[in-house]
Design goal:
The structure holds two protein chains of two kinds. Chain A is mainly alpha-helical. Chain A contains eight helices and no strands. In chain A, α5 (84-93) runs antiparallel to α7 (122-137) and α7 (122-137) crosses α8. The longest helix of chain A is centred in the N-terminal third of the chain and has 16 residues, at 24-39. Chain A is elongated, with a radius of gyration of 24 Å. By secondary structure, chain B is mostly helical. Chain B has two domains: 8-77; 102-165, Winged helix-like DNA-binding domain superfamily/Winged helix DNA-binding domain (Arc Repressor Mutant, subunit A, Orthogonal Bundle). The radius of gyration of chain B is 18 Å and the shape is globular. Residues 85-100 and 176-181 of chain B have low confidence and may be disordered. The chains are: A mainly alpha, B mainly alpha. At the A-B interface, α1 and α2 of A face α1, α2, α5 and α8 of B.
Chain lengths: 158, 181
């Protein structure tokens, strides 16, 4: 069998499969997708000037720079902070030693740095993980899911 | 007339190219429902591109690039997902079909798709669009953003390469009586 015969047979199946194909259904779907797209909040980009949006900007610094178990109470301030991931990345990249940053205590951050000594840019890693997480789950505002974002980043660097 | 969020230009473009896009996705190995999803995603990307797409010198080429990227993304994501069903058993040989019956004809198309994958991307695109999708050289040239003569050249080289690749073709017959030519 020569190439022309082969292609002719293959073309016939494709033609039969799409005989009477009406693009109207596809157009309706595109309309629906476009409307959904217009009303769905887009994933937030990385906030460079994150300190201006941090929840703790008006809090008493002494509340965040506490010792021992008081740090776990201090962490609750970070819950729902819109720039939690940015804050954490900043603290990890700059090896900030003291205080609660991005919802993690000193001890938790030290443990994270020890577990992943090869990471050269936590900002790049967490930003990519957040984008990927938002794309995979369809959740645009990922701040309340920071744990999942960090878990994904750890999974990649394992 | 019902209100629409799509511009008339995008709607018209969609209607005249959707079938080609779906068929092209099929020719790259996508299942029917996947091909529809791919085409829809590509058109949604074009909608998001807005003026960048509508003002493009070659809208066909712009859209086709988006389609190719969407197909690549689709298969990349699919390969990461766990398989939910077993893969069908591979036929006895790569190019197995006498293309006589309906099932054989489908096998034949799958074989051609596989054979095309062995060619350089441009040649494979030109051949599949010309021989499977039945598009003219001018249409292919628009989609690929190259000249019609370049398409002719790719077709001619691609056909020779494919013929060589299909040398020793041994048909696979669904009745189980393989080995017939």
């Amino acid at each position: 069998m020569n190439i022309d015969d082969l292609f002719q047979a293959a073309r016939a199946t494709l033609r039969d499969e799409y005989a009477g194909y009406d693009p109207a259904a596809g157009r309706t779907r595109l309309e629906d997708d476009a409307v959904r797209d217009a009303v769905t909040p887009q994933p937030r980009g990385w906030v460079e000037d994150w300190t201006a949006q941090a929840i703790c900007r008006t809090a008493d610094p002494d509340e965040l720079f506490v010792q021992g178990t008081a740090q776990n109470r201090a962490k609750s301030l970070c819950t729902g902070c819109p720039v939690r991931t940015e804050c954490l990345a900043d603290a990890l990249d700059n090896r900030v030693e003291y205080g609660v940053w991005g919802g993690m205590t000193e001890r938790e951050r030290r443990a994270l740095l020890r577990r992943r000594p090869a990471v050269t840019s936590w900002r790049r890693l967490l930003e990519t993980a957040r984008t990927e997480y938002a794309r995979a789950t369809g959740i645009a505002h990922t701040q309340p899911h920071q744990k999942e974002v960090v878990d994904k980043a750890l999974e990649w660097t394992a | 007339m019902s209100p629409t969020i799509l511009s008339a230009e995008l709607s018209a473009f969609h209607d005249s190219h959707r079938l080609n896009f779906v068929k092209y996705a099929r020719s790259r190995g996508a299942q029917p429902d996947e091909a529809e999803d791919i085409a829809s995603t590509a058109f949604l990307t074009l909608y998001r591109a807005g003026q960048a797409f509508l003002a493009a010198d070659n809208r066909d080429g712009f859209a086709f690039k988006v389609l190719r990227d969407t197909i690549a993304d689709h298969f990349r994501h699919r390969s990461r997902r766990p398989r939910t069903q077993a893969l069908p058993e591979e036929p006895g040989n790569l190019f197995g079909a006498d293309c006589g019956g309906a099932i054989d004809a489908v096998n034949c198309r799958v074989d051609i798709e596989r054979a095309l994958q062995a060619l350089p991307a441009r040649q494979a695109d030109c051949l599949s669009m010309n021989l499977l999708l039945d598009l003219s050289r001018e249409q292919i040239a628009h989609y690929l953003g190259i000249s019609a003569s370049a398409v002719s050249s790719h077709l001619s080289t691609g056909r020779r390469a494919l013929a060589k690749h299909l040398e020793g073709y041994q048909p696979y017959v669904t009745t189980g009586q393989g080995g017939q030519g």
